[in-house]
Amino acid sequence: MNVETEEDRRGKRRREDQDEPQRHEVLWFTDGNVVLATDKYLFKVFKGILSMLSAVFRDMFELGESSGGESVVQEMYEGVPLVTLVDDQGEDVAHLLRALYDHRYYNCYNDKTPLNVVIALLDLSVKYEFKDLMKDVVKQISRQFPMSLRDMDRIICEEEPLFQRIDQEKAGLLLLQAAYKTGIDALLPILFFFCSNMHVDKIFQTAQSMDLESLRILIKGRDELIFASCKLVSNLPQDLKADIKNSECLKDGLCVNESRYLHLDELNTPYFHYTQGKETVKFYLSFACKNCASSVAKSIEKRRGDIWAKIPSYFGYPGWEEANAKLEELMDS
Ligand SMILES: [Zn+2]
Protein backbone atom coordinates (compact mmCIF):
# COMPACT_ATOMS: atom_id res chain seq x y z
CA MET A 1 0.00 0.00 0.00
CA ASN A 2 1.21 3.46 -0.86
CA VAL A 3 0.96 5.73 2.15
CA GLU A 4 2.21 9.30 1.93
CA THR A 5 4.15 10.03 5.10
CA GLU A 6 4.63 13.44 6.69
CA GLU A 7 8.24 13.30 5.50
CA ASP A 8 7.06 12.75 1.89
CA ARG A 9 4.65 15.65 2.15
CA ARG A 10 7.35 17.96 3.50
CA GLY A 11 9.72 16.94 0.67
CA LYS A 12 7.00 17.56 -1.89
CA ARG A 13 6.28 21.00 -0.47
CA ARG A 14 9.98 21.85 -0.53
CA ARG A 15 10.21 20.85 -4.19
CA GLU A 16 7.15 22.94 -5.01
CA ASP A 17 8.69 25.88 -3.18
CA GLN A 18 11.86 25.48 -5.20
CA ASP A 19 9.88 25.50 -8.45
CA GLU A 20 8.12 28.71 -7.50
CA PRO A 21 9.70 31.86 -8.96
CA GLN A 22 12.01 33.55 -6.47
CA ARG A 23 12.54 37.25 -5.79
CA HIS A 24 15.47 38.46 -7.88
CA GLU A 25 18.23 39.55 -5.54
CA VAL A 26 19.13 42.73 -7.47
CA LEU A 27 15.89 43.61 -9.22
CA TRP A 28 13.64 43.74 -6.19
CA PHE A 29 13.05 47.37 -5.23
CA THR A 30 11.07 47.51 -2.00
CA ASP A 31 9.41 50.77 -3.13
CA GLY A 32 8.63 49.36 -6.61
CA ASN A 33 5.00 49.49 -7.75
CA VAL A 34 4.64 46.44 -10.00
CA VAL A 35 5.81 42.83 -9.80
CA LEU A 36 6.80 41.05 -13.00
CA ALA A 37 6.67 37.28 -12.75
CA THR A 38 8.61 34.81 -14.91
CA ASP A 39 9.30 31.09 -14.67
CA LYS A 40 12.30 31.63 -12.41
CA TYR A 41 12.22 35.12 -10.91
CA LEU A 42 9.94 37.79 -9.52
CA PHE A 43 10.99 41.39 -10.17
CA LYS A 44 9.63 44.33 -8.20
CA VAL A 45 10.19 47.36 -10.37
CA PHE A 46 8.69 50.72 -11.36
CA LYS A 47 5.81 51.10 -13.78
CA GLY A 48 6.71 54.68 -14.70
CA ILE A 49 10.15 53.78 -16.03
CA LEU A 50 8.89 50.79 -18.00
CA SER A 51 6.02 52.87 -19.44
CA MET A 52 8.39 55.66 -20.44
CA LEU A 53 10.74 53.29 -22.30
CA SER A 54 8.35 50.70 -23.73
CA ALA A 55 5.15 51.25 -25.68
CA VAL A 56 3.98 47.71 -24.91
CA PHE A 57 4.36 48.07 -21.13
CA ARG A 58 2.73 51.51 -21.26
CA ASP A 59 -0.35 50.06 -23.02
CA MET A 60 -0.40 47.07 -20.67
CA PHE A 61 -0.38 49.26 -17.54
CA GLU A 62 -2.92 51.72 -18.97
CA LEU A 63 -5.27 48.84 -19.79
CA GLY A 64 -4.90 47.49 -16.23
CA GLU A 65 -5.75 50.90 -14.75
CA SER A 66 -8.61 51.82 -17.07
CA SER A 67 -10.41 48.49 -16.67
CA GLY A 68 -11.44 49.66 -13.20
CA GLY A 69 -11.76 46.05 -12.11
CA GLU A 70 -14.96 45.59 -14.13
CA SER A 71 -13.96 43.15 -16.84
CA VAL A 72 -10.29 42.49 -16.09
CA VAL A 73 -9.34 41.23 -12.68
CA GLN A 74 -5.93 42.59 -11.83
CA GLU A 75 -3.77 40.00 -10.09
CA MET A 76 -1.98 41.38 -7.06
CA TYR A 77 1.19 40.49 -5.17
CA GLU A 78 1.57 41.91 -1.66
CA GLY A 79 -0.51 44.94 -2.55
CA VAL A 80 0.97 45.78 -5.95
CA PRO A 81 -0.16 44.63 -9.41
CA LEU A 82 1.36 41.38 -10.67
CA VAL A 83 2.12 40.94 -14.37
CA THR A 84 3.10 37.45 -15.55
CA LEU A 85 5.40 37.34 -18.54
CA VAL A 86 4.37 33.91 -19.72
CA ASP A 87 6.74 33.26 -22.62
CA ASP A 88 9.88 34.93 -21.31
CA GLN A 89 12.77 33.29 -19.52
CA GLY A 90 13.60 34.75 -16.11
CA GLU A 91 17.30 35.09 -16.94
CA ASP A 92 16.51 37.01 -20.15
CA VAL A 93 14.14 39.40 -18.37
CA ALA A 94 16.82 39.94 -15.72
CA HIS A 95 19.27 41.04 -18.46
CA LEU A 96 16.62 43.36 -19.88
CA LEU A 97 15.75 44.99 -16.56
CA ARG A 98 19.38 45.33 -15.50
CA ALA A 99 20.19 47.02 -18.82
CA LEU A 100 17.30 49.44 -18.21
CA TYR A 101 17.94 50.18 -14.55
CA ASP A 102 21.74 50.13 -14.45
CA HIS A 103 23.64 51.97 -17.18
CA ARG A 104 26.87 50.20 -16.26
CA TYR A 105 25.35 46.80 -16.99
CA TYR A 106 25.11 47.16 -20.75
CA ASN A 107 27.16 49.30 -23.11
CA CYS A 108 26.86 48.73 -26.85
CA TYR A 109 30.51 49.69 -27.35
CA ASN A 110 31.73 46.94 -25.07
CA ASP A 111 32.91 44.03 -27.23
CA LYS A 112 32.93 41.71 -24.26
CA THR A 113 29.16 41.62 -23.75
CA PRO A 114 28.27 37.90 -23.54
CA LEU A 115 26.33 36.63 -26.53
CA ASN A 116 23.39 35.39 -24.46
CA VAL A 117 22.94 38.94 -23.10
CA VAL A 118 23.02 40.43 -26.61
CA ILE A 119 20.45 37.93 -27.85
CA ALA A 120 18.15 38.35 -24.84
CA LEU A 121 18.27 42.14 -25.19
CA LEU A 122 17.56 42.01 -28.92
CA ASP A 123 14.69 39.60 -28.48
CA LEU A 124 12.97 41.40 -25.60
CA SER A 125 13.66 44.98 -26.73
CA VAL A 126 11.92 44.21 -30.02
CA LYS A 127 9.09 42.27 -28.37
CA TYR A 128 8.29 44.99 -25.82
CA GLU A 129 9.33 47.94 -28.04
CA PHE A 130 12.15 49.29 -25.91
CA LYS A 131 13.23 51.31 -28.92
CA ASP A 132 16.41 52.93 -27.62
CA LEU A 133 17.72 49.66 -26.23
CA MET A 134 16.88 47.87 -29.47
CA LYS A 135 18.84 50.48 -31.44
CA ASP A 136 21.84 50.03 -29.15
CA VAL A 137 21.84 46.26 -29.60
CA VAL A 138 21.48 46.51 -33.38
CA LYS A 139 24.34 49.04 -33.39
CA GLN A 140 26.49 46.64 -31.39
CA ILE A 141 25.80 43.70 -33.73
CA SER A 142 26.34 45.76 -36.87
CA ARG A 143 29.69 46.96 -35.53
CA GLN A 144 30.80 43.33 -35.26
CA PHE A 145 29.44 42.53 -38.74
CA PRO A 146 30.34 45.46 -41.01
CA MET A 147 28.94 45.35 -44.54
CA SER A 148 32.27 45.49 -46.32
CA LEU A 149 34.19 42.71 -48.04
CA ARG A 150 37.56 43.84 -46.73
CA ASP A 151 36.35 43.99 -43.13
CA MET A 152 34.55 40.67 -43.33
CA ASP A 153 37.61 38.98 -44.89
CA ARG A 154 39.64 40.21 -41.93
CA ILE A 155 37.08 39.21 -39.30
CA ILE A 156 36.48 35.72 -40.69
CA CYS A 157 40.10 35.07 -41.68
CA GLU A 158 41.62 36.15 -38.39
CA GLU A 159 38.79 34.54 -36.44
CA GLU A 160 38.37 37.76 -34.51
CA PRO A 161 36.58 37.03 -31.25
CA LEU A 162 32.93 37.98 -31.21
CA PHE A 163 31.10 38.57 -27.99
CA GLN A 164 33.39 37.21 -25.28
CA ARG A 165 35.41 34.86 -27.44
CA ILE A 166 32.74 32.27 -28.02
CA ASP A 167 32.96 30.06 -31.09
CA GLN A 168 32.66 32.55 -33.95
CA GLU A 169 30.54 30.32 -36.19
CA LYS A 170 28.08 29.43 -33.44
CA ALA A 171 27.80 33.12 -32.50
CA GLY A 172 26.94 33.97 -36.12
CA LEU A 173 24.26 31.29 -36.35
CA LEU A 174 22.62 32.26 -33.06
CA LEU A 175 22.61 35.94 -34.04
CA LEU A 176 21.16 35.12 -37.46
CA GLN A 177 18.42 33.16 -35.75
CA ALA A 178 17.67 36.05 -33.37
CA ALA A 179 17.74 38.73 -36.09
CA TYR A 180 15.46 36.63 -38.31
CA LYS A 181 13.01 35.96 -35.48
CA THR A 182 12.85 39.63 -34.48
CA GLY A 183 12.63 40.81 -38.10
CA ILE A 184 15.68 43.09 -38.10
CA ASP A 185 16.08 42.97 -41.89
CA ALA A 186 19.01 45.39 -41.96
CA LEU A 187 21.23 42.78 -40.28
CA LEU A 188 20.12 39.76 -42.27
CA PRO A 189 22.18 39.94 -45.51
CA ILE A 190 25.49 40.23 -43.63
CA LEU A 191 24.54 37.53 -41.11
CA PHE A 192 23.38 35.18 -43.87
CA PHE A 193 26.68 35.80 -45.68
CA PHE A 194 28.69 35.19 -42.51
CA CYS A 195 26.84 31.95 -41.75
CA SER A 196 27.27 30.60 -45.26
CA ASN A 197 31.06 30.52 -44.74
CA MET A 198 30.98 27.35 -42.73
CA HIS A 199 30.77 23.62 -43.01
CA VAL A 200 27.25 22.31 -43.45
CA ASP A 201 27.67 20.08 -40.36
CA LYS A 202 28.22 23.19 -38.25
CA ILE A 203 25.06 24.76 -39.63
CA PHE A 204 22.97 21.71 -38.78
CA GLN A 205 24.45 21.40 -35.29
CA THR A 206 22.91 24.76 -34.44
CA ALA A 207 19.96 24.46 -36.77
CA GLN A 208 17.72 22.43 -34.46
CA SER A 209 16.20 25.58 -33.05
CA MET A 210 16.37 27.54 -36.29
CA ASP A 211 13.31 28.63 -38.22
CA LEU A 212 12.90 26.33 -41.25
CA GLU A 213 12.43 29.17 -43.74
CA SER A 214 15.58 30.96 -42.57
CA LEU A 215 17.49 27.67 -42.85
CA ARG A 216 16.22 27.25 -46.42
CA ILE A 217 17.34 30.79 -47.31
CA LEU A 218 20.75 30.14 -45.76
CA ILE A 219 21.37 26.86 -47.58
CA LYS A 220 20.12 28.20 -50.93
CA GLY A 221 22.23 31.38 -50.67
CA ARG A 222 25.22 29.38 -49.51
CA ASP A 223 24.94 27.21 -52.65
CA GLU A 224 24.84 30.29 -54.88
CA LEU A 225 27.89 31.75 -53.17
CA ILE A 226 29.77 28.45 -53.57
CA PHE A 227 28.85 28.32 -57.29
CA ALA A 228 30.05 31.90 -57.83
CA SER A 229 33.23 31.26 -55.90
CA CYS A 230 33.98 28.01 -57.76
CA LYS A 231 33.39 29.78 -61.07
CA LEU A 232 35.91 32.45 -60.10
CA VAL A 233 38.46 29.79 -59.16
CA SER A 234 37.85 27.65 -62.28
CA ASN A 235 38.32 30.67 -64.54
CA LEU A 236 41.61 31.78 -62.98
CA PRO A 237 43.85 29.91 -65.49
CA GLN A 238 42.02 31.30 -68.53
CA ASP A 239 42.01 34.83 -67.01
CA LEU A 240 45.72 34.72 -66.19
CA LYS A 241 47.06 36.21 -69.45
CA ALA A 242 44.63 39.12 -69.30
CA ASP A 243 45.36 39.66 -65.59
CA ILE A 244 49.11 39.95 -66.30
CA LYS A 245 48.88 41.88 -69.57
CA ASN A 246 49.11 45.40 -68.17
CA SER A 247 51.66 44.80 -65.41
CA GLU A 248 55.25 46.04 -65.60
CA CYS A 249 56.82 42.62 -65.74
CA LEU A 250 60.22 42.32 -64.06
CA LYS A 251 61.10 39.38 -66.32
CA ASP A 252 60.67 41.21 -69.64
CA GLY A 253 57.20 39.81 -70.24
CA LEU A 254 58.15 36.19 -69.61
CA CYS A 255 55.49 35.77 -66.89
CA VAL A 256 52.68 35.71 -69.48
CA ASN A 257 53.97 32.38 -70.78
CA GLU A 258 55.72 30.98 -67.72
CA SER A 259 53.39 31.57 -64.83
CA ARG A 260 50.74 29.02 -63.94
CA TYR A 261 48.39 28.00 -61.16
CA LEU A 262 48.84 24.78 -59.18
CA HIS A 263 46.45 22.97 -56.81
CA LEU A 264 43.55 25.37 -57.42
CA ASP A 265 41.09 22.62 -56.44
CA GLU A 266 41.97 23.42 -52.80
CA LEU A 267 40.09 26.70 -53.21
CA ASN A 268 36.78 25.03 -53.98
CA THR A 269 35.31 25.38 -50.48
CA PRO A 270 32.43 27.31 -48.85
CA TYR A 271 35.00 29.75 -47.41
CA PHE A 272 34.86 32.87 -49.57
CA HIS A 273 37.86 34.43 -47.81
CA TYR A 274 40.08 31.61 -49.16
CA THR A 275 39.85 33.26 -52.60
CA GLN A 276 41.41 36.57 -51.53
CA GLY A 277 43.69 37.88 -54.31
CA LYS A 278 46.91 38.17 -52.33
CA GLU A 279 46.60 34.73 -50.73
CA THR A 280 45.57 33.03 -53.97
CA VAL A 281 48.61 34.43 -55.76
CA LYS A 282 50.94 33.68 -52.85
CA PHE A 283 49.97 30.04 -52.44
CA TYR A 284 48.78 28.94 -55.88
CA LEU A 285 50.48 31.03 -58.61
CA SER A 286 53.97 29.95 -59.64
CA PHE A 287 56.67 31.58 -61.75
CA ALA A 288 55.21 35.11 -61.69
CA CYS A 289 57.35 38.13 -60.84
CA LYS A 290 56.33 40.47 -58.02
CA ASN A 291 54.64 43.00 -60.30
CA CYS A 292 52.72 40.42 -62.30
CA ALA A 293 51.61 38.63 -59.12
CA SER A 294 50.37 41.93 -57.70
CA SER A 295 48.49 42.70 -60.91
CA VAL A 296 46.81 39.26 -60.79
CA ALA A 297 45.89 39.71 -57.11
CA LYS A 298 44.18 43.03 -57.91
CA SER A 299 42.20 41.48 -60.76
CA ILE A 300 41.04 38.64 -58.49
CA GLU A 301 39.94 41.16 -55.86
CA LYS A 302 37.97 43.04 -58.48
CA ARG A 303 36.12 39.86 -59.46
CA ARG A 304 35.53 39.06 -55.79
CA GLY A 305 34.08 42.56 -55.44
CA ASP A 306 31.64 41.78 -58.27
CA ILE A 307 30.51 38.63 -56.41
CA TRP A 308 30.32 40.56 -53.12
CA ALA A 309 27.93 43.07 -54.72
CA LYS A 310 25.56 40.22 -55.62
CA ILE A 311 25.68 38.40 -52.28
CA PRO A 312 22.55 39.98 -50.74
CA SER A 313 20.56 38.84 -53.80
CA TYR A 314 21.64 35.22 -53.14
CA PHE A 315 19.60 35.45 -49.93
CA GLY A 316 16.70 37.36 -51.47
CA TYR A 317 17.73 40.90 -50.47
CA PRO A 318 18.22 43.84 -52.83
CA GLY A 319 21.80 44.93 -52.02
CA TRP A 320 24.30 46.29 -49.53
CA GLU A 321 23.28 49.89 -50.15
CA GLU A 322 19.68 49.07 -49.34
CA ALA A 323 20.71 47.14 -46.21
CA ASN A 324 22.82 50.10 -45.08
CA ALA A 325 19.94 52.49 -45.76
CA LYS A 326 17.64 50.28 -43.69
CA LEU A 327 20.14 50.29 -40.87
CA GLU A 328 20.38 54.09 -40.92
CA GLU A 329 16.60 54.38 -41.07
CA LEU A 330 16.31 52.15 -38.02
CA MET A 331 18.87 54.22 -36.12
CA ASP A 332 17.10 57.48 -36.99
CA SER A 333 13.62 56.19 -36.13
ZN1 LIG B 1 56.27 39.38 -64.55
Named at the architecture level, the CATH assignment of the domain at 13-102 and 112-140 is 2-Layer Sandwich
Strand content: 5-15%
**Distinct ligands:** zinc ion
Give average pLDDT, whole number: 91
Number of DSSP-assigned strands: 7
Structural class of the helix and strand makeup? alpha/beta
Largest sheet: 5 strands, mixed
Query: Ends: how far apart?
Result: 68 Å
Number of helices: 16
Query: What's the CATH C level of the domain at 13-102 and 112-140?
Result: Alpha Beta
Write the CATH fold name of the domain at 13-102 and 112-140. Potassium Channel Kv1.1, Chain A
- The rough form would be described as elongated
Low-confidence stretches: none
SSE run:
HEEEHHEEHHHHHHHHHHEHEHH
Please state the CA-atom Rg, rounded to the nearest Å: 27 Å
Report strand order across the widest sheet.
1-3-2-5-4
The CATH superfamily of the domain at 13-102 and 112-140 is identified as Potassium Channel Kv1.1, Chain A
Q: Helical residue percent?
A: 55-70%
Pfam families: BTB
InterPro entries: BTB/POZ_dom, SKP1/BTB/POZ_sf
Protein name: BTB domain-containing protein
Domain BTB: 32-104
